[in-house]
Amino acid sequence: MTNYEEEYPQWNDWHWQMRNRVFNAQQLSKWIPVSDELRSEIESCTVRFRMAATPYFLSLIDPDDPDDPIRKQCIVSSKELELCPGDMHDPLNEGGSSVTPHIVHRYPDRVLLLVTTQCAMYCRHCTRRRIVGERDCSPTIEELDKELDYIRAHKEVRDVLISGGDPLTLPTDRLEAIIKRLREIEHVDIIRIGTRVPCVLPMRIDDELVSMLKKYHPLWMNIQFNHVRELTPESEEACRKLADAGIPLGNQSVLLNGINDDAETMKALLLRLVHNRIRPYYLYQCDLAEGIGHFRTTVDKGIDIIHQLQGRISGFAVPKYVIDAPGGGGKVPINYEYVKEVDGNKIVFENYEGGLYSYLQPGGEKNDG
Ligand SMILES: *Cc1c(COP(=O)(O)O)cnc(C)c1O
Ligand code: SF4
User: Fold this and answer.
1) Which end of the chain is more exposed for a tag (fewer CB within 10 A), N or C?
2) Ligand 1 atom closest to Cα of residue 324
């Protein structure tokens, strides 16, 4: 990295990183070798799905490894043009749960507020690929303010999740205008930001942003790190600043075929996250968005990875494995079945090593649990 910083004096300026994002094969060839085959793959795929990656994230690629986990997340593949059984245009039916153009209200006490379609990088496995990456557009603050009337009128909304696209690609004053309006709503208790910026554009986490955010506590942040190699000195520094500002950090990984779908790789990621005071929150089963079939694993694999880790590493290092139910049912935890038998008031269950234990619960009635 140091050599990039020397070669590009503005390397640590996030605006420079955004301006110098890579959208096509020619720009990519500045950062990694681009074969003729890759060039034509990129040309045919970007007609359908846009590519964009920051020079920073591209610099993490090992050019000698065709299966590099960083590369697979940011560089298009012709596999994206293959339709797989089950593919859906809007798998989570966010369209159907939208109450205004930019608010999705699916759960009783919390809403999702989509403040921009822009991301620093377009992840190849993105579930919102139908809206992000098409065109960078963000509603104006006046438009959003009108939509916030929905939240103002719904007193049950105590948690607002600001997402997109990536909210941290907005200018700080613009983001503050949104957060400030939310803070003024008395029944809104928690404000959360969902972002991949600390991972793909860590220089964006500057002092100006952090001191703005810390004025609006309780404010939580969920990041998406998928592989331990994404935890670089730069991204760790970004997370340190956020944690030092009292922002509880969570991580939402996606289980990705050939990237993080074995217990050892996952464990390395999780331990590095907790080292950085980032609490693993969710591990998502890769959803049914179009063109991401090659990233999907079986559900058994996800269950097995969590089962292998549970009990073997700190409890708070193990995320919840969830499927975001196709059609809009929300996130559902999918677990290994530890309860082996329920016989009357006796429950027989397994511990992490496979040993069987039992527990006598109150009541003696036959219970067909
Ligand atoms: C994921 C999500 C949330 C937040 O869910 P948590 O389980 O509380 O993290 C809220 N609204 C929508 C529509 C979501 O998809
Ligand atoms: S940062 Fe999130 S919304 Fe943006 S492309 Fe990646 S997964 Fe999709």
Assistant:
1) C
2) 15
